[in-house]
Amino acid sequence: MHLLLCPDSFKDALSAQAAARAMARGIQRAAPQAHIDLCPLADGGEGSLDALIAATGAERRIAYVHDALGRPTQAAWGWFEAERTAFIELAEASGLQTLSADERDARTTSTYGVGELFRAALEAGAAKVLLLLGGSATNDAGAGMLAALGAKLLDRHHQPLAPGGAALAELHSLDLSSLDPRLARLHVEAAVDVDNPLLGRHGASAVFGPQKGATPEHVAELDRALTHFAEITARTLGENHRALPGAGAAGGMGFAARAFFSATLKPGIELMMQQADMSHRLERADLVITGEGRLDGQSLSGKTPIGVARAAHKAGKPVIVLAGSLGEGWEACYAEGVTAAFALADGPMSLDEAVTRTTTLVEARCEGLIRLWQAAGS
Fold this sequence. Notes:
Blueprint: E1 2-5, H1 16-30, E2 35-38, H2 48-56, E3 59-66, E4 72-80, E5 85-89, H3 90-94, H4 112-123, E6 128-132, H5 143-148, E7 152-154, E8 173-175, E9 187-192, H6 204-208, H7 216-237, H8 249-261, E10 264-267, H9 268-275, H10 278-284, E11 287-295, H11 304-314, E12 319-326, E13 340-343, H12 351-356, H13 358-377
Parallel strand pairs: 1-2, 1-11, 5-6, 6-9, 9-10, 11-12, 12-13
Antiparallel strand pairs: 3-4, 4-5, 7-8
Family: Belongs to the glycerate kinase type-1 family.
GO molecular function, one term: glycerate kinase activity
Keywords: Kinase, Transferase
């Protein structure tokens, strides 16, 4: 019996790696001789770097960068030597989780540290970067990243702009002549978990700005500033990417990746599975177990369990989803290749208790599932 375990994280309870290990422990109690393949995954958001490193065996490296407020900090990135590929997670350098509630200001936070991570990758000799977008504290459409890589964003007095998205309203000229020339040879793929455009009521500022500290007035200010940036970018490059699905990801970083790096934007789970060699792993599997904190109708928009289920269905493999809870519309997941789905809770419990017991519950559910699987096959 060959089992493929590829969960996402269970938010506030278990990382994807810890969830996969808990699944394995439960399975081993029921089937000590089972062949278990651990392949923790993510959908491109926070935690994707750790999942990629675990799935590929890439080297975890540390770079000294600046956070979203310009403070010196350390950020992790991944280096996969065999493919000369760097894994860069935006949230490591410019993540919302690194700021306290009163520090969050979408007008001034910057992606400069992400540019510094790109520099580290280029210095290592990267031919490819997998850019993981999600969990950002920023709304500057990648302007800070560009500045770190040598671009000059100047106001009408030929002075560099202040950090942040709001300052883009003062942009007069965009000079790319000093942009790191190594970028021209770099292949970039960006993992996105949203399909929002850059601007408007469905854009980066309106949809994601409020969670980064933006008031309604700030949202309007930021949308105008990003509109101005998009116009100057279009004149400079001769291409307009403001309406591209995913351009609004991570405060407009999807836009910057496509416009300045010619990046391919793909659903995060697809890129993660591709890098983890999921197709070959599925060939060997008799059963696939995945999961995350919540399974509901919105999971169909690109969450890990559904991405796994779709791939497994194409390979003709059964898939079981374990979720912290099953929310409204979860039954639609059956049409996406899910064989069965189960909530972890074994009785009435508070959220705090569920979080505390997640490891034990995952182990117990997996043990029970494998005992049932063996009985059905006997």
